[in-house]
Amino acid sequence: MATLPVDAIKPLADKHPKPPNVLFQYGTAGFRTLGDALDPVMFRVGVLAALRSKRLDGKTIGVMVTASHNPEPDNGVKLVDPRGEMLEVLWENHATTLANAASTEDFIAAVQTLVTNSRIDLSKPARVVYARDTRPSGPALVASLEDGLKAMGAETRNAGVTTTPVLHYLVKAINTKGTKDSYGDDSEEGYLEKLSSAFKKLVAGKSTASPLIVDCANGVGAIVGKKLAEALGSSLPLNLQNTAIDTVGALNNACGADFVKTSQKLPPSLASVLKRGERGCSLDGDADRLIYYYMDEREQFHMLDGDKIAALVAAFIVDLTKSAGLEEVVQVGIVQTAYANGGSTKYLSERLPVKCVSTGVKHLHHAAERYDVGVYFEANGHGTVIFSPETLEKLATHQPSTPAQSTALNHLINLTKVINQTVGDALSDMLLVEIVLAHKSYSGVEWDALYMDLPNRLVKVVVADRHIFKTEDAERRLVSPPGLQARIDELVRRYAGGRSFVRPSGTEDVVRVYAEATIRSQADELAFRVAGLVYDETGGDPARRPAEFL
Ligand code: 16G
Ligand code: MG
Which end of the chain is more exposed for a tag (fewer CB within 10 A), N or C? Predict the structure, then answer.
């Protein structure tokens, strides 16, 4: 039985000491904090990724260095499991334990415990593929990660600077290489080729946007977006905006999907770009979120968020399964979170099964796996569509009885290729949206008209300890602090179409309050009043109670 290479780990671990008095936590999006603070975490994640691979018999594990839509000085890291999915929850805890070991000795002891408890056979190979986004802190953090991988003698592959969804794709492609389930060529070119060739087949003979404006958030989406534009050629001309990846401070600054969703505004940099009647979309800093919008004839801006994308796409897939003669055997279902607009939930649940789960991709993804075709989107624009293995098999073997059925079946098969089924992927989702719009001859206006969004408001409350806030019912109700939910309910009853919920953030040290109501001013008022309740509950200094809460 092989033993832990302590002699190799020790000197390298000493190069990446953990400072005292900091606590790291592997949260919904992995480890995420100021880039400057992450050096020891990266080394330890390298060791952990190698162990995870050994545990899974040498399957390739992914490591992505990114802080997504966060400000540029932040960075982060997350692990990707062999099928291209988020790391298993149990191992999130292992990651937190290793990251917090106080010294090199403690770290080695923690690794040893993990090896024993998880019955890791150290003689197995370790294989890891990693990538980073465009953040300035990325190269140094990757070097630290590489030290961790080296300490464990892992076989590594550096996928360079690319999007989070490309890294997820690579992991799955590497692990399925040469099998009957091959996910595609295991390279960025393979990814671009897979998506763009299926896209071209799906829009052949249809007219697409000319061109589509794409806000790249001054991040890595600009790099991969440019390559995608080349691969798409005239099938979908892209007008890439906010591509300043080398300008310090530009990343996610007043642009990108998160800016648009939270401020419900067009990025100022697009004010003179997006013309009347045109549509555009924004990616986030690692290109796994997508928000659409259009400018109407009166120069009013309208946002089309993840909920609108889900509604558009689900209806299209249902239509195709009917046209292909598969509606009896392939059931389409939707997964949302509490942040889904009430308008969308009503619209969708009148048509399809809808499930609400807790925030975070892993919850949505797992719930979506229960359907034959699971469409999951968070309102913030993260989402995808997944086809179960049985459904893929049915699509491959179904015998269409008419030419129309055959066309619909081919469309469905091509959709399974355009869609990145490992994780939400802004570029892939953008192609998916453009396919549906081209097929339906919809502009932003018709798409938007599927249902009306209820006015809503999201407020952050800074509290002394957000961990006292505990939720149930897919985060829609608070169980702690005791009594607070009853007071929220009482308030909500006073607002027409009112709905509000409170949850602690998984990525920031704040509590989030969401509210919606039939009228804009009422949604705002409800949000601020619930925020006021939250603030009071935590014993905040009345003198510092934010003015809007009064
Ligand atoms: C992370 C999640 C995202 C979620 C968001 C909520 C992943 C890959 N990403 O970005 O799904 O919407 O956190 O943030 O799971 P919050 O907990 O701060 O509200
Ligand atoms: Mg992101």
Answer: N
Which homologous superfamily is 6-161 in?
Answer: Alpha-D-Glucose-1,6-Bisphosphate, subunit A, domain 3 (3.40.120.10)
Which residue is closest in CA terms to ligand 1's atom 10? Answer: 29
> What CATH number does the domain located at 306-424 have?
3.40.120
Residue whose entry in the numeric block shows the structure tokens 């990325």: 138
Residue 547's pLDDT is 57
At 338-376, the pLDDT tens digits run 999 999 999 999 999 999 999 999 999 999 999 999 999
What residues does ligand 1 touch, defined as CB less than 6 Å away?
28-29, 68, 359-361, 378, 380, 382, 505-508, 512
CATH 3.40.120.10 assigned to domain 189-304? The reply is: yes
Structural fold of domain 456-549 = TATA-Binding Protein (3.30.310)
Q: φ and ψ at 332, to 5 degrees? A: -95, 135
- 10 Å CB burial of residue 422 (0-12, 13-18, 19+) is buried
> Domain residue spans in the chain?
6-161, 189-304, 306-424, 456-549
Name which residue sits closest to atom 3 of ligand 1, judged by CA.
360
Catalytic hit among 68, 358, 428, 500: 68
Q: Which two tokens stand for residue 125?
A: 């190979």
Nearest CA to 368 among 416, 333, 328, 330?
333
What is the position in ligand 1's atom list of the atom closest to the CA of 28? 15
Is 144 catalytic? The answer is no
Atom 1 of ligand 1, nearest CA residue: 29
Ligand showing the shortest atom-to-Cα distance for residue 514: 1
Q: Output the pTM of the full model.
A: 0.96
Rg over alpha carbons for the chain, rounded to the nearest Å, is: 24
